[in-house]
Fold each of these.
Amino acid sequence: MPELPEVETVKETLKKHILHKKIKRVDVRYPKIIASPSVEEFVTRLKNQEILDMRRRGKWLMFVFKEDTLLSHLRMEGKFFLKEHEEEINRHEHVIFEFMDGTELRYQDTRKFGRMYLLKSDDIEKRKPLNELGLEPWDPTLTVSYLKEKYKTKRLPIKTVLLDQSIITGIGNIYADEILFLSHIHPLKVCSKLTKKECEQIIDHTKSVLNHAISLGGTTIRSYESSEGVHGRFQHSLLVHNHEGEACPVCKKSIIKIKVGGRGTYYCPKCQKK
DNA sequence: GTGACCACCTGGCCGC
DNA sequence: TGCGGCCAGGTGGTCA
């Protein structure tokens, strides 16, 4: 499931291969992927446009053109593959960007959860959906006082709030578990009761976990892989996520799995006390 | 404003 | 072997 490190990996991989390619034609085979504008307008506006840059904001992948920017959210299982025009289209490839040079960028999404927006590039940060995002983990304004302010009215478990993209953007279920483990915070701890020290730990470990994951190309769990079919290696560095019943790497107590806000959550009952 | 719940989707897994 | 049911989870919408 692509989170910030996986999207960053996809962005960097695509950047090497599709920058300055010009779109000849776009084929939308599953219309619901296109959230805005209409499919007809989406296809028309992208024709003859050149990809000038690739960016990322939170979990959103951004294809920058001269006047427009294409936002793509991979959600659970979205992937991009660069293929030749002659290659057979499989049933999970829902949006196909055909380039002038005969290659194609294909958006594959088994579960069809991914969404794309085509927006005017000017003031894009002020437009939906980017205007609803919180701070990037490396934003200098992500401070203890920022978190304390955001958390002070939240009575939800910290695990749930870490997944709230309007506070810190880019954290998903896997990394939330890892961040809380390293911060020695119980996933069910009520957010408004976090101390300054705990907020500081969350900020520090958010950065370190995501940096480490990016350096290893993200995490490959279940069906996620980046473009080119590249598998991330961070799953070998996961300390608690997906390790139910195994020994905690610190105290050797058995890792427990619970549900928090409907999400599978892994933690060590000894290292992470409420 | 806040929080709980559900729908969107399909493939993998498990039990019968 | 085949079938049904459950689970995985990011996000947006609805409702209390």
Note: The two ends of chain A are 28 Å apart (CA to CA).
Amino acid sequence: MDIENITPTNFIEEEIVKDLREGKIDKVITRCPPEPSGYWHIGHCKAWVINFETALKFGGYTYLRMDDTNPSREQGEFAESYLDDLKWLGYTPKAVIYASEAYFEGIYNLAEKLIMKGLAYVDELSQEEQLKMKGTLTTPGINSPYRDRPKEESLKLFREMRAGKFPDGSLTLRAKIDMSHPNILMRDPIMYKISREHHYKTGDKWCIYPIYDFAHPMEDALEGVTYSLCDITFRVHREVYEWFVDNCWDGEVKPKQREFSTLNLENVLLGKRYLKQLVESKYVMGWDDPRLLTIVGMKRRGYTAQGIKNFVKSCGVVASESTIPFSSLEYYIREDLNKVATRAMVVLNPLKVIITNMEDGVTEEIEIENNPNDENSGKHKAVFAREIYIEREDFSDNPPPKYNRLTPNGIVRLKGAYVIKCNNVVYDNNGDIDHLECEYLKNTKSGQEGSNIKVKGTIHFVAKCNSFDCTIRDFKNLTKDEYLWPGKALAQGVKIDEILQQNSLVTSRAKAEKFLKTATPYSHYQFMRKGYYTLDKDSTKDEYIFNSTISLKDSFKKN
RNA sequence: UGGGGUGUAGCCAAGCGGUAAGGCACAAGACUUUGACUCUUGCAUUGCGUAGGUUCAAAUCCUGCCACCCCAGCCA
């Protein structure tokens, strides 16, 4: 890696370049520290992208570290899911580490060291008493009566805490900083608590657990992390982080915490506790419901990892608050899907068309490009026959201005096949259109001489004999449009039923070309002129279910 | 009312004393066997939260003010 050839693109990279040049560090090591207590969503994704991409840019690496220091919240199921998510996103951690297994002993030793320096003490105050003596935002706190007990006594008590001599919640280990500090987090923060909850990883080995403010900087230090990149929520914790690093860590390289703003999307409900609520109360199909912006949900919806990463990168690395319109995410998803999705024809709302000058039982093979933007993608075969289906909205007996699809006596091209002319509209008893009688114009087949006849429009279709019925799942926004920040509304006490949109999952039937029988879950398709779709994992051999990933842009303005 | 953070277009965002990049959205047009994609054009004419100051020159430096966000779990 040559520092001189690296152009920093944000304030964190600028600092890294400086540190590298000044020789303060010689490699960039970051970390991705999820607490296994829920599934990742796009917000977390930003943190992982920044940690991984930053390290990558400087030739460094990133650890995946389960920040599992609280036995009451964590589950192995979640830890497993992160491994899959990260792999899907395309990142490979230097190692997968469980803080509980790898660092609990080391953190404990550092705590003892701090006690012996006279900078930590065992407190006997109850939680309520501690809260009372903490002071407020504008008034200082009061020292605990146990604050100045001899360090030997604290050490003895701390060892006894570990040995299980005291009941849960009875004692805590606290850092001796400053009870009148203007930053409340600096008022003798708690380093250890007593808890006999069963830990999913370490079982009952420990009955004391380190608290985040102490645990995190020590984990970073023990791991050799040089930059601990987290979201702006932790900005106020930086002072505590640095205090612990300065007072506990003798290593040459001291980890630095730097913060960037969280990712907020308009009209999207994020936040572990809310997602959990949706899942547990069965508002959605599960953590991987395509309406959720969890990694697994987006994957099932048909979003691509590259699209998500491009979007996250487009948001930049800054410290200012922002809320991005959903359309911005959609742009990056479409942009990537356009490159990778295989084209296919599917009629979502079929209207039967009889090609009167085509004999029954006779079929003609046609070819469809798998992806016109990718020369190497090849073609697949489809069929033209007497009985076909077109999209109901592709025919109108009362066309609006600039309508360039099929009309009575009008012509239109069938994608990949012939130009057809509508000779007759057959109505049913209710006066609705039952089917169309059309003729195909000879010599207008795609690729043939005469195929360059000018037509206003091209529509997609499927031949009855080359199609199968499938299910389409369409997703509307989970929450009502008027709630730009649904999470904030919930925090302010609005009931979840109030903010959820009714019928956000709409199921319908469609006629898909037979080629789509080869689809596998999570593969990407563009149903031409409609949108991008992916096969849902609920599909069976007899029942294909396609999830609508996102529609194509549509610039046709009715009226 | 304590501490910290942030204010550049409808939404993001570059800018680091030399005269407002880029993207999304939007609008108009070209192309098109997907009304997609692509392409072209327009989109802050002294305006960068605001009021002053320094300077030949300020979004950039200084001072005051205003607005918004975060912090008082034995959560992370």
Note: Residues 267 and 484 of chain A are 4 Å apart (CA to CA).
